[in-house]
């Protein structure tokens, strides 16, 4: 169970600037944790040679506890290299590429 799963508020989850926040209906953010490490699983469809897609992303905090199982990037967006995909994930989260581990 991730830290986000333990969040009991009725707001939405936002990942930005290297942190995971819960934003309630009043618009006030509550920081759940800082991203310390990212595990990224990449899908390479057999019928689409040279295409890379996000298969799964798990964010961990600085204590290496599961922070957030982010399904928002698991879509059909296509990248033409593993490097381009890693770069896009780092930019989206506002983190260094160095903390992303490709599984």
Automatic annotation (TrEMBL):
Lineage top rank: taxon: Bacteria
Name this protein carries in UniProt: Uncharacterized protein
Source organism: Hominilimicola fabiformis
